[in-house]
Prior knowledge:
Blueprint lengths: L20 H23 L9 H9 L5 H18 L11 H11 L2 H14 L4 E7 L5 E7 L11 E7 L6 H4 L3 H11 L3 H9 L1
Bound molecules: fe (iii) ion.
Fe (iii) ion binds next to helix 1.
Amino acid sequence: MSFTLPPLPYDENALSPVVSxxxxxxxxxxxxxxxxxxxxxxxxxxxxxxxxxxDLIRRVAADPAQKGLFNNAAQVWNHTFYWNSMKxxxxxxxxxxxxxxxxxxxxxxxxxxxxxxxAATTQFGSGYAWLVKTAEGKLAVTKTxxxxxxxxxxxxxxxxxxxxxxxxxxxDYQNLRxxxxxxxxxxxxxxxxxxxxxxx
Length: 200
Ligand code: FE
């Protein structure tokens, strides 16, 4: 049995102008779909086909011989997580218990935003900026290169991510990664998705 892509959680033009319909169309329809197609080819006829995606990624992560499969499978998961990390009309400060957690972990929302921007702009080359929950139950900002994902780190729970591969922003912002990152945080950040991941 092969995997299929979940549909985008919104229309392709729903995040415009922060992320244009053209970017979403290529990013979801070509890049994300491409990772899925490659993964399905690699697992065809193997026992990996029967695993949930998260388990498959964790299983192959430690095996250097499976690096190609890991890269494609992790990119399938990372992109679905990224789509859900954004929503039309998002952004701004969290409320309720998440607001308390932000204050407790960073001192202020502004400090969290600063750390997310720093992670997004200092990730050398391709990768992701993340908000995660630590083993101590606090929030923390991390970054990962290429297809790497906090899913393989048992000490943290991924809560939110931003794709900072050039394909995520080049059509809309050219080389201005910081402008893309700040626009996503200010206008699309999906706090409900963070709440959902904190509760799971
Ligand atoms: Fe991407």
